[in-house]
């Protein structure tokens, strides 16, 4: 049984709103690296039952892929407290995925939010 949630444009916002920590795998069935990454992702989902593991089929959900600027797949994204804290294309090996999850767990989200708001303020000052 899979521990992953299929994310669609209908349930994406609610899933991100309802969960403090979500991993998102952007993938497609025709993508070889995506198929190689799938069992690694499933294993991580089994080993981290306290986290939400979502999958976005970029073929079925092109709007979501476009909204996040996904240009190559697989792309892994991690969202904590509604802030994207990690996004990287490419199939990660198990050890690298475990490391990324550990790093994301260790983030001080107050510091992350502070850095994000400082960047936004700087962009506004520069007229961006």
Give the mean pLDDT.
92
Structural class: alpha/beta
Terminal CA distance reads 46 Å
CATH 2nd-level architecture? 3-Layer(aba) Sandwich
Kindly give the count of domains: 1
Q: Count the helices. How many?
A: 5
Could you tell me the strand content as a percent range? Answer: 15-25%
Largest sheet: 5 strands, mixed
Q: How big is the Rg?
A: 15 Å
Helix/strand order:
EHEHEHEEHH
Model regions low in confidence, pLDDT < 50 over at least 5 residues:
none
Q: CATH homologous superfamily?
A: Glutaredoxin
SSE arrangement:
Blueprint: E1 4-6, H1 12-18, E2 21-27, H2 32-47, E3 52-57, H3 62-67, E4 75-80, E5 83-89, H4 94-106, H5 109-125
Parallel strand pairs: 1-3, 2-3
Antiparallel strand pairs: 2-4, 4-5
Concise account of the structure shown:
It contains five helices and five strands.
Summarize the structure in words.
With 128 residues, the protein is α/β, with parallel strands linked by helices. The protein has a single domain (4-125), classed as Glutaredoxin (3-Layer(aba) Sandwich). It contains five helices and five strands; from the N terminus they run βαβαβαββαα. It has helices at 12-18, 32-47, 62-67, 94-106, 109-125, and strands spanning 4-6, 21-27, 52-57, 75-80, 83-89. α2 (32-47) links the parallel β2 and β3 (52-57). The longest helix is centred in the C-terminal third of the chain and has 17 residues, at 109-125. The protein is globular, with a radius of gyration of 15 Å. Keywords: Disulfide bond, Electron transport, Redox-active center, Transport. This is Thioredoxin. Residues 1-121 form the Thioredoxin domain. It holds the Pfam family Thioredoxin.
């Amino acid at each position: 049984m899979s521990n992953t949630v299929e994310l669609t444009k209908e349930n994406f916002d609610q899933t991100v709103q309802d969960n403090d920590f979500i991993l998102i795998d952007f993938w497609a069935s025709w993508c070889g690296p995506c198929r190689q990454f799938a069992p690694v992702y499933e294993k991580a989902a089994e080993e981290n039952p306290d986290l939400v593991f979502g999958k976005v089929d970029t073929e079925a959900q092109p709007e979501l892929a476009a909204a996040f600027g996904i240009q190559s797949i697989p792309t892994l994204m991690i969202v904590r407290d509604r802030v994207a804290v990690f996004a990287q294309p490419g199939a990660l090996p198990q050890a690298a995925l475990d490391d990324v999850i550990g790093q994301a767990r260790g983030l001080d989200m107050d510091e992350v939010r502070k850095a994000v708001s400082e960047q936004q303020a700087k962009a506004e000052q520069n007229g961006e």
